[in-house]
């Protein structure tokens, strides 16, 4: 099978193809960050300023990319990040993306705001993690955890950096709202504020403001840890002190994340936050990272900075928009090819060896 995505030789090609296909307001919803988008840009700047020092004479003929992430076997040190409303870009939405993740052998994270249910996505046979937003209705939180467990999810990823949604000016200018055909499949059916378009505002932000509980605190994390048998992954950590406390409360892993630049504008880029978090908790918990990952070289960079693996976000939506399942498969294939070559060129026989590489931060970083 071939498709438009086969013309892409890197993820930037897929971004351009997707941009030409998507309605402008959907493109902005995916691409945009909060405020002036300083942190959105800084995620890329910090990665580009991170240089890896390769090792020579390693005698390496082939590099192994297989690893384990939160007790989940993964063909690459990657997981698909939780992303809402994937039917915005393709009718099959999360089902297509999860099928591609299953074929590539990487975990797929189901969002609380998924446009397909976790039960439906479980039918793809992908290795699933479930991402949990903290909702005002504690009964719904309890129900979602039980559904994730029953559907066979192998980890629970609780996002802690969205007490309120960041002010995303592209969405505000567009008066962005979901089309009636796209619903938050895990929340109550029927009309939702996310569909109520109004000038000078984001209906999606209005909806999350109603549904999400901004008072999420450490006691809630402790409560959650006591009520699930799944490994707990805390996503949205930048300060090593927070990472330590998460692990002390029983987290198996943390994700160094600024929500792809979509929350606090001016927050530290993840490549700069990562080494200090690894230093603080890397001996006792896994440390994953997201934010601006766009190539196999980027994956090598974060491995060298100490991460166990990376979450890949927006590029999955580009592939999905261009070619559905086949497009997402193309994204993951390109990342795998690029990572294998990057490992070989860096003198690494496997993913673990990449964590022993030395990095250098460009002093020109603003």
UniProtKB/TrEMBL annotation:
UniProt-annotated binding residues for FMN: 82-84, 111, 131, 159, 235, 257, 290-294, 313-314
EC annotation from Swiss-Prot or TrEMBL: 1.1.3.15
Enzyme superclass (EC): oxidoreductase
Occurrences of domain FMN hydroxy acid dehydrogenase (ranges): 3-364
Positions contributing to glyoxylate binding: 133, 168, 259, 262
Cofactor needs: FMN
Gene Ontology terms for molecular function: (S)-2-hydroxy-acid oxidase activity; FMN binding
Residues at the active site: 259
Keyword tags: Flavoprotein, FMN, Oxidoreductase
Classification via PANTHER family: 2-HYDROXYACID OXIDASE 1 (PTHR10578:SF107), S -2-HYDROXY-ACID OXIDASE-RELATED (PTHR10578)
Family note: Belongs to the FMN-dependent alpha-hydroxy acid dehydrogenase family.
Name of the protein: Alpha-hydroxyacid dehydrogenase, FMN-dependent L-lactate dehydrogenase
């Amino acid at each position: 099978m071939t498709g438009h995505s086969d013309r892409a030789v890197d993820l930037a090609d897929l971004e351009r193809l997707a941009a030409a296909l998507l309605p402008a307001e959907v493109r902005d919803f995916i691409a945009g960050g909060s405020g002036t988008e300083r942190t959105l840009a800084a995620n890329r700047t910090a990665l580009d300023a991170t240089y890896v020092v390769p090792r020579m004479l390693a005698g390496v003929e082939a590099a192994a990319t297989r690893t384990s992430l939160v007790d989940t076997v993964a063909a690459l040190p990657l997981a698909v990040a939780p992303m809402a409303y994937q039917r915005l870009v393709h009718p099959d939405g999360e089902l297509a993306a999860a099928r591609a993740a299953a074929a590539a052998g990487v975990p797929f994270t189901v969002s609380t705001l998924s446009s397909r249910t976790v039960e439906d996505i479980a039918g793809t046979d992908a290795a699933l993690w479930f991402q949990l937003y903290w909702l005002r209705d504690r009964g719904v939180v309890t129900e979602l955890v039980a559904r994730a467990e029953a559907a066979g999810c192998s980890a629970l990823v609780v996002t802690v950096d969205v007490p309120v949604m960041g002010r995303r000016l592209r969405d505000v200018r567009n008066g962005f709202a979901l089309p009636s055909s796209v619903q938050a499949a895990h929340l109550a059916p029927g009309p939702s504020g996310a569909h109520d378009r109004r000038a000078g505002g984001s209906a999606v932000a209005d909806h999350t403001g109603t549904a999400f509980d901004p008072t999420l605190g450490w006691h809630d994390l402790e409560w959650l840890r006591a009520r699930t048998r799944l490994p707990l992954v805390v996503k949205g950590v930048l300060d090593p002190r927070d990472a330590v406390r998460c692990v002390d409360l029983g987290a198996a892993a943390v994700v160094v994340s600024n929500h792809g630049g979509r929350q606090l504008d001016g927050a530290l880029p993840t490549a700069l936050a990562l080494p200090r978090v690894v230093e603080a908790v890397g001996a006792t918990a896994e440390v994953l990272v997201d934010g601006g990952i766009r190539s196999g070289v980027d994956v090598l960079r974060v491995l060298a900075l100490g991460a166990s693996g990376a979450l890949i976000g927006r590029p999955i939506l580009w592939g999905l928009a261009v070619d559905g399942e086949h497009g997402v498969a193309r994204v993951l294939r390109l990342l795998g090819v690029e990572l294998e070559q990057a490992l070989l060129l860096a003198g690494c026989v496997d993913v673990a060896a990449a964590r022993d590489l030395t990095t250098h931060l460009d002093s020109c970083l603003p």
